[in-house]
Design brief:
The complex is a heterodimer of chains A (294) and B (298). Helices cover 43% and strands 22% of the residues of chain A. By secondary structure, chain A is α/β, with parallel strands linked by helices. Chain A has one domain: P-loop containing nucleotide triphosphate hydrolases (Rossmann fold, 3-Layer(aba) Sandwich), CATH 3.40.50.300. Classes of the chains: A alpha/beta (294), B mainly alpha (298).
């Protein structure tokens, strides 16, 4: 395997006054160029924390205790804020979760789409405008001219998410971080947006970190995936293997809790309490073993 | 001074194009409040042209003449005269100048100081926020009248001192609101998006956040103008504003109070002007808040 685009190794994150509560437990994952990697887990599993750690936008109170995040061999965690910003700004971009709040309500779409192009590519206003129109066309936006002049509140949720996708791909980034980009959308729009992200990603050869809690979405869009529970990797691998032959009981239980079109009439099973108990026991054992090392 | 007043008045209007203007025109409060303020600005600028008499000219032979509609009314003095025979209408017209100058300049200064501190506290949080917040709390614990008397005592009386006193007292109003609004806006994903795009903190603060704080700010400035008019009148009333040879509404009220049984109109006319002006500023502020909020428009 060639050197990965992004390599996270043994990442530990903690919170609490003395860093006593672990948020991420020894998470490692590699993402190759042009690959979509799913981060799956329930709320609080740490999937968004990983995404935010890559971007360097962890909320106050959460800090990285150990481990490394390397983008093309450069450890992001050892960089100071300004060189990190220079490195990330044009190479890594974000598709945020909520298209309602992710666009500045007081600025027109044109201003927001051309920001990055002018900052990083040094384009003139006219050139940036042309490029922004191309991008809107690329994300299959109807009437791009009208959209450019609009304020965010004049667009629908799906349109706003298209604008955000256009903005995320504007600088031809090597890595796009999609933080639950379809959660706030209804199911029909969700499918279009997933197809669009996949199409954009394939066309530009971009690596994608796709954060989601929906195994159905993972099956649709991801090449590889990491399944997290309480900040610990439960299972990792190619999505095909993961879904066809889950090895970890948690993965299996989650699969049983998902609706399956290929197995009609099978019904849905809630994740059994014993599976959670086993997961927690596994994590407690991990914490004990590590405490023993120190 | 009159020039700076008009500049502020015109930049206070939104320049976001025709749609914004139409939204403003749909708000009756903006139309009436703004219209009346505009009328006052014209009156203040054209005072020498429209005032029927010299506001300082005394004529002891025609003292305490009543206004239009009463016995002994003199057609030369529409609103009557005071005990020194000075024309009330002319004094009222010239008083507009001080009132509006103080309103525009003091409110703008207070807004500048308060907004800057509020933005910094709300965005950078931490030590900056602690310092600014404690400062606001300590500041607000001082009785405002004492503080303004202190400022005027140190700087000497005059319009500049009155303006300084209002700005020094009332920046806390802006700081508190702007701080809270900045905190709310800073939570928005669009701020995170700007950070991941690599924009610096100052760019984000002034280009992403400030425009979204601006509608609240504009409404607040307008309300503050109304407050400034009242504070100026209070300081004039207690004799701490401009010298008595410059007509002010507060000064007229103070003078009228002494002769209220002989000539109530000397007291009533500036009071009515004060009331109408403050009401107009408040209506304008309320209307602007409704009209400029991009979410409330739909």
């Amino acid at each position: 395997m060639t050197a990965p685009l992004l390599s996270i190794s043994h990442l530990n994150a903690v919170t609490g006054r003395n860093g006593e509560t672990p948020i991420l437990r020894d998470v490692s994952l590699d993402i190759a160029a042009g690959e979509v990697h799913g981060l799956v887990g329930e709320s609080g599993a740490g999937k968004s924390t990983i995404a935010k750690a890559i971007l360097g936008i962890l909320p106050r109170g959460i800090r990285i205790a150990s481990g490394s995040i390397a983008l093309e061999g450069v450890d992001l965690l050892t960089l100071d804020a300004s060189s990190r910003r220079k490195l990330l700004g044009a190479t890594v971009s974000l598709i945020p979760q909520d298209p309602l709040t992710a666009l500045n309500p007081g600025r027109r779409i044109e201003a927001q789409l051309t920001d990055g192009l002018r900052l990083w590519r040094g384009l003139s206003a006219a050139d940036a405008r042309l490029r922004a129109l191309q991008l809107l066309d690329e994300v299959q936006m109807a009437e791009p001219e009208r959209v450019m002049k609009a304020f965010p509140h004049e667009l629908s949720g799906g349109m706003r998410q298209r604008v955000l996708i256009a903005a995320a791909f504007a600088l031809e980034p090597k890595l796009v971080i999609a933080d639950e980009p379809t959660t706030a959308l209804d199911v029909t729009v969700q499918k279009q947006i997933l197809r669009l992200i996949r199409a954009m990603q394939e066309r530009h050869g971009t690596g994608v970190v796709f954060v989601t809690h929906d195994l159905g979405v993972v099956a649709q869009i991801c090449d590889r995936a990491t399944l997290l529970y309480m900040g610990k990797t439960m299972e990792q691998g190619r999505v095909k293997d993961l879904l066809d032959a889950p090895r970890h009981p948690y993965t299996r239980a989650l699969m049983d809790a998902c609706p399956r079109y290929d197995q009609p009439g099978r019904g849905l099973a809630p994740v059994p309490e014993t599976v959670f108990a086993d997961c927690r026991a596994e994590i407690a054992a991990f914490d004990r073993e590590r405490a023993g090392h120190v | 001074m009159a020039d700076s007043a008009t500049i502020i008045a015109t930049t206070g209007a939104p320049s976001r194009g025709r749609r914004r203007l139409q939204a403003l025109a749909r708000q009756p409060k903006v139309v009436w409040g703004g219209g009346f303020i505009l009328f006052l600005v014209v009156v203040a600028l054209a005072a020498p042209l429209i005032a029927p008499h010299d506001p300082l000219a005394q004529d002891l032979m025609s003292g305490t003449l009543p206004p239009l509609g009463f016995a002994d009314y003199d057609p030369g003095f529409l609103l009557g005269t005071d005990d020194l025979g000075r024309d009330v209408l002319s004094r009222l017209i010239y008083g507009t100048r001080i009132a509006l100058t103080v309103a525009f300049v003091a409110a703008t200064l207070a807004a500048l100081v308060g907004t800057l501190l509020g933005l910094l506290a709300g965005y950078f949080r931490g030590v900056t926020d602690t310092v600014v917040s404690r400062l606001i709390e300590i500041w607000m614990a001082f009785p405002p009248v004492l503080l303004s008397i202190l400022v005027v005592a140190i700087m000497g009386s005059g319009v500049t001192s009155v303006i300084a006193a209002i700005a020094i007292i009332d920046w806390t109003r802006f700081a508190r609101v702007v701080r809270a609004e900045t905190m709310a806006q800073a939570q928005g994903d669009y701020v995170t998006a700007a950070r991941t795009l690599g924009f610096g903190r100052w760019t984000i603060l002034f280009r992403e956040i400030l425009p979204n704080v601006a509608p609240v700010l504009l409404a607040l400035i307008t309300l503050e103008m109304g407050i400034a008019v009242i504070v100026e009148a209070i300081l004039s009333f207690v004799g701490l504003s401009v010298s008595s040879d410059t007509p002010t509404w507060g000064g007229m009220i103070a003078q009228g109070r002494q002769i209220i049984y002989q000539a109530w109109w000397v007291f009533a006319a500036p009071l009515a002007a004060l009331f109408a002006t403050v009401l107009a500023f408040n209506q304008l502020g309320d209307g602007l808040r409704r009209a400029l909020d991009p979410v409330m428009q739909r």
